[in-house]
Structures are given as structure tokens and as C-alpha cells.
Queue: 2 jobs
Job 1
Amino acid sequence: MGDYHLHLHRHGRAHELDPPPGVYPAGHIEAYVEAAAARGVHELGFTEHLYRCEDAAGVLGRFWEREPVAWLADQTERFLAEDRTLNLERYVETIVDAQERGLPVLLGLEVDFFPETIDAVVEFLAPYPWDFLIGSVHWVGGWAIDHEDAVAAFDERGVDRAYEQFFALEAQLAASGAVDALAHVDVVKKHGHRPPRERTDLYDEVVTAAAGSGVAVEVSSGGLRNPAAEVYPAPALLSRFYDAGVPITLASDGHSPHQAAWGRDEVVAAARAAGYTERSQFRKRRRTQVPIESRPEGPSDLEAGGDGGAGRPAATVDDIGPEGDGEHGEHYQQRDDR
Ligand SMILES: [Zn+2]
Ligand SMILES: [Zn+2]
């Protein structure tokens, strides 16, 4: 089993128990590895946010300035000022060092998709030894579509139009060939906004684009920690991906050690319900297919806590742990995922 979407820092102001932004203390990555192993997951793909890296600010540009709705542009500018606290070089060094120490970790990145800058971003990222890249639509123009401080925009423009704009960008991302997997491909539902009728018509374009480019799609428990209360992608969308032959990765989008491999059983159940028996594994951006429950082969396999992959049941929303979503309420919970 693998978790191909993990972050080493939470968003915004650090929790008192967290390392400060950009600091990777001894044992931090090991804590993720141990938490995942306890859930039967033995391959961890870290995917820090490109937009959070100060040294990537130039290549993404001041994209919010293209946003015609002033308050949305302002919200994004404020959010970036608070959240852009990491360094790409330092992050890459940290993961490569963990690999050299024999930990079962992969070097990935969560790449923000903007049609205007994706080619420059691909070039910017080319020198690094990525195992895989995931691609995300977090912004429609300058609107941070998954941010709790910008949800009023759903009322202003209408849920259907928001879905149309979001999925148009997802389809462009899927067709671009820039990344290896699509992250939270229907994150537009995160805060519980649903069109009166499920927009399966919008699914077809992104599925066709993904099948054409060969990109995988992640099945993520992240939606279960939010008002959407559903795995990403929705069942009707994941079934379409399966029918079109689009491969999957498995993901938690965890932002702290206790979230590593969180929701494993729900993710596996969703994948199996759509028909999947295999997941994708990446090394140096080359994909192979392995059974969903398999463990990685080779020297990076971690035996500590080894339980043959059976694992214990994933935590439920209620027992996510003392640092978890429950005790800090909705606000904290929603800031925890992106
Ligand atoms: Zn994301
Ligand atoms: Zn993420």
C-alpha cells in the first residue's frame, strides 16, 4: 500500500507541536513512516506544495492580479503572504536525505496548475530528481476555490458555473502531460457545494483528457475530513476513470504525521467499488502497476512495525487523534487540507 499525497507542514501558523515552517527536525519523517506503517501503508510519497515555496514565487507569478473579482484577489494575496513559508531546495534535500537513510519515501510535489505558467513550471522543475508529480487546481483565476475564507464566491457566481470553470481547468491539467497524477480531482465539492443535478457531463472531458495523456488520478481520503464527506473523486467520476483505463494512486493528503495513510480503508473500498484491483507506483517518474495491497520491493522497504500489509483498520473521523480535526473544530480542520 502507498500514500502518494503527504505534506510535511500544516498551513498557516504552525501548531505548537509542529516544527516551524521549513524546519525538518530529526525524526519528523520517521513519525510519518511509523504512523503509515501502523495503518498497513509502507510507501510514502511526499508532495509539498509548490506555491508554498518562496523560491517558486517567481515562476508562478502574481497570478491573483489576473482575477477580476477584487476581494478574491485580495484574499489570495493575504493567504500567500501567510502561507508561503517553505523552500523548495530545502524540501528536496530533506526527502533525498531520507531516501539515502533507507526510509521508504518518494520525492513528489503538488504542482499548482495555471494554464498561463504550467510550461514555465515544468521547465523550472526539470532539474530535480522527482519520483512523481501531482497536479492540483487550487485556484480558478485568483479565487482560492478550496479555501474557507473564499466560499462566498460560490453564492456570487453560482455553483454550476463554479463547477464548469473548475472542471475546465482540470481537463486542461489532465491533457497537459505536466504531472503524473491528478490530485483531488473534484475538490470543488470540498465545502459541500453541489449542483442541483450531479454534473456528470463535466466529468467526461476530464476523463477523456486523462485517458489521452496517460496521467493517473488519485483516490484521496481528504474529502472525508471536510463537509464534502466523500472520497475524491466521487463514485460516478471514479467509475468513469476506471472504464476509460485511467490508473490510480492512493492518497490521504495528510499534513501531519498522525494523518499519514489516514482513511486507508475508505480509499481502498472506493477504488475497489469502481473496479480497481491495481494502483500505480512511481520511481523517477516511471509508472508501474502493482496490486492495491502490495508492499514496495527493494532496499527501501521498511520492516519496522511490519504487519504484512494487513494493518489495523483506519481511524475514523472521531478517533483521528489528539492533534486531530475533532478537538480543533471546523476552522482548524479545513485549514489542514489543501
Ligand atoms: Zn491540494
Ligand atoms: Zn495536498
Note: Residues 159-176 form the longest helix (18 residues).
Job 2
Amino acid sequence: MVQGKADRAHPMNAPAGTRPTAVTPPSPANAPVVQARNLTRIYQVGAVQVTGLDGIDLAIPAGRLVVLKGESGSGKSTLLSLLGGLDRLSSGELVVAGQDLSRGGEEDLTHFRRHVVGMIFQSFNLLPTLNVLENVCLPALLAGSAYTAVRRRARELLEWLGLGERLNHLPRQLSGGEMQRTAIARALINDPALVLADEPTGNLDSQNAGKVMALLADLNRTFKRTVVIATHSHLADPYAAMLLTLRDGRLAA
Ligand SMILES: Nc1ncnc2c1ncn2[C@@H]1O[C@H](COP(=O)(O)OP(=O)(O)O)[C@@H](O)[C@H]1O
Ligand SMILES: [Mg+2]
């Protein structure tokens, strides 16, 4: 591959040892990381049933960058919540990274959320009283990883994301773009097979939005992790290996 100037200057091209290290090897190429059949989520609100997802069939091969589009209310967040184990399907089948999410108890789901997926949200969801480094370390400490190794990996990730000088800063001392980059580091700390981003640039100006999309594309390329981005923004389009459109809880053909 011919490397451009920008590539050579990239921190991921730094000597080994200064790069964020991948803990688990990537899944074999093209093994589906997501397999859904007739995936359905009905919300019961009082006496009313609201359809979030209306019977979706979906296979996402490992290593893809997937862009998920659709108008507000079309089911994007519902789908990401199911893929991330934040919510349970009403019916159908859903297997993510080999784990059957239609079965199993809360403990299985907790383990799944900690070890298999990393999530990024529009509103960043950083803990306000923890500094940048602590926010990034937290999911790994909860997952039981050793403190010294976690700190090292968090620093590596934050340096890669251009936040090496901000480790001790609190979220309120950061710009929106910096908060979202902190959230990206946090999503990567447990080396997830699948990174899910729900409107990750919804609260960012266009310059920071472009940067965040480029970083998501970069981590997809660099770490070979599957990335699903729900977004209204066209900024993700150039990076999409797979484009999905939801309409009223169904995938548009
Ligand atoms: N917790 C909930 N309770 C009831 N209805 C919900 C809930 N979450 C989402 N919905 C409904 O499910 C549909 C899909 O919503 P959502 O997945 O949030 O769409 P999007 O992210 O594309 O805007 C909408 O009709 C929405 O009102
Ligand atoms: Mg949404």
C-alpha cells in the first residue's frame, strides 16, 4: 500500500509499543459479527403498543463500517440498543459475536456489554466527577482488568486520539469534540468486537463532527473492528462499507 504523507504522520504508524495494543485478535474475515432474523422490538406504553423494530433480517460481516440511516423515530436507536445488549428483543433471533441475545440472564448481558461491545452516544455520557483518564479506565476496571495495564492502555488510546495533554481534565473542561474523543477511548478500552455509535456527531460542530467520523473510520481500519454508526450526517457516507436505511422499523431495500 502506498502511504501518503498524512498516513506516515499518523500516530498509529508510531513504533510498536507506543501504539494502542489489541488485546483479542480480530474475528476471522467475513464471519458475521451480527446475525438477526425477524428481529422485533415492541414497546408497551400503558395500553398502547409502539413498534420500535418490525421484523428485521440482517447480517453484518466482521470488520465492516456500517452506516445506519433513517428519519427520527425509524428505529435506529432501538436497533443499536439491542445490538449493544442494553435492551431485550421482543421476538426473533439475535446473535452478536457468537452470543445469543435472545437467551441468557442479566449476568450474561452484563458480561456481553463489558466485553463485546463499546458504545458511543450523542450526549457523550461521561461521568462529570471523573477526569478523562478515569472515565476511560472505568469500564476496564469494572470488567476486572489489572489497574496498571488498564492505565497504560487508556493513556495509549487517549494519546492516539490527541488527548494526551488532557488526562487530568474533567469533562466540563473539554470541548464537545474532546468529550466525544474521550468517549471513543472509553468505548475501545475493553477492545470490543463491535463499536456502536448512536448519532455520535449530533452535538458537534461540523469540524469536530468530521474529525470524529474520521476517527471512527480509522479505528475500523486500524483495529479491524466492526463499527455501526447511526447518523443523519452525510459525513459518514464516504466511509460506509455497508449502508442500511430504516423506515418505520423496517430495513428499506
Ligand atoms: N422506550 C421507549 N418506549 C416507547 N417507545 C419507544 C421507546 N424507545 C423508542 N420508542 C419508539 O420506537 C420507535 C423507534 O424509535 P427510535 O429507535 O428511538 O428511533 P430513532 O433512533 O431512529 O429516532 C419510535 O416510534 C419511538 O417513539
Ligand atoms: Mg435515535
Note: Strands lie at 32-45, 48-61, 65-69, 91-96, 99-100, 117-121, 194-198, 226-230, 242-247, 250-251.
